[in-house]
Design goal:
mainly alpha
Length: 357
């Protein structure tokens, strides 16, 4: 005879579940040796959890002798119809060569798509040069404002702090060896030639690259891209070209801005740490950093900007019309853009290793 409340709230009381399980195990062992009569007519309340507990004790089948109320019959009828749970078989283990092959196939697919996008940009640029009156000037201007002007604040804050940190760390080491006057050389070369362009590119890749990918992805989700194709508006000329040109123009300007603010932060720290006056800093800077380093920094900015825009557009146009693909594509775009920028910076360092010294 089974009595009492067999609902989950009653069985969740301290010690109740453990006592029920031990009692049901003992009854299950007795049922294996002799036939038992189960009577649930005195159960005051029963839910699926309590029914499943009894069902498991019965070996997932009705006992030969069982007394149930009408409501209880529905619970056990559903458990009986559900049958045993069957888990799907585990997926087969992928061999290492298959994984490498899949990665290489995906990489080649992205590389071919990126080269095709670059070729389409060159064709669209030639078309714009031949017919400048039909060029998307408004889109280019709007993108320069959003990508360049609205990024001045974040690049100024980060650039100033990087300049302060670099100046403090360099000043400590130089002061140990009595080389305080070389702080201008270290700050000037490192910021103008390397840190300024790289810092601006990473910030723009995270801020504007993700925005470009998300914009194109939303247009895919809302079928605006399909509507443009139906109306005969090419994606490359109206969407890709303005963004790439905007970054090609805005990035060198952002590099100049970031360099200036980072040098201002370094100059401030040099004044506080070593007592180098701003006048001395500004007088020594042109001699410490030859002109080719400025030009290399500006060239890096333009190349980085073009790469960031092309990578963002490449992943934006590949987004599937669902929200999961939108988030995944945006993340992949930012990571890929930053990785490609660092690779391009390494190529610049190798190609121009003997220039500007």
């Amino acid at each position: 005879m089974v009595r009492g409340n067999w609902q989950v709230n009653a069985m969740a009381q301290p010690g109740v579940m453990r006592g029920l399980q031990s009692r049901l195990k003992m009854l299950a062992r007795r049922a294996a040796r002799q036939s038992l009569q189960w009577d649930l007519s005195q159960v005051t309340a029963l839910d699926h959890i309590g029914a499943q507990l009894l069902w498991n004790a019965w070996g997932k089948k009705r006992p030969d002798s069982l007394v149930l109320t009408r409501q209880q019959k529905d619970f056990f009828k559903r458990l009986e119809d559900a049958g045993p749970l069957s888990l799907p078989p585990p997926p087969p283990r992928r061999r290492l060569l298959i994984v490498i092959y899949d990665w290489a196939r995906v990489g080649l697919d992205h590389l071919s798509g990126f080269v095709a996008l670059l070729g389409q940009f060159i064709l669209d640029f030639n078309r714009m040069v031949r017919t400048p009156r039909r060029a998307p000037w408004k889109e280019i201007s709007a993108n320069i404002y959003h990508i360049g002007f609205q990024a001045l604040g974040i690049t100024a804050i980060v650039g100033f702090l990087i300049g302060v940190v670099l100046s403090f760390l360099s000043a400590q080491q130089l002061h140990t060896f009595g080389g305080d006057i070389y702080l201008v050389n270290i700050l000037g070369m490192s910021i103008i030639r390397e840190l300024g362009p790289l810092l601006a590119a990473i910030l723009v890749a995270g801020r504007s690259g993700s925005a470009i990918t998300a914009q194109l992805g939303v247009m895919r989700v809302t079928q605006e891209l399909d509507a443009m194709e139906v109306m005969g508006l090419p994606h490359g000329f109206r969407l890709i070209l303005p963004r790439v040109i905007a970054l090609l123009i805005a990035m060198p300007l952002l590099v100049i801005w970031t360099d200036a603010i980072a040098l201002l932060g370094g100059m401030t720290a040099a004044q506080l740490q070593l007592g180098l006056s701003p006048t001395y800093f500004l007088q020594q800077l042109p001699g410490a950093v030859p002109l080719p380093n400025y030009l290399i920094g500006l060239g890096k900015g333009a190349v980085f900007g073009g790469l960031i825009a092309l990578v963002a557009c490449h992943f934006g146009l590949r987004i599937e019309p669902n929200t999961e693909s939108l988030g995944q594509g945006t993340t992949t775009s930012v990571v890929s853009a930053i990785t490609i920028v660092i690779l391009a910076d390494a190529v610049f360092a190798i190609l121009f290793s003997g220039v500007g010294f």
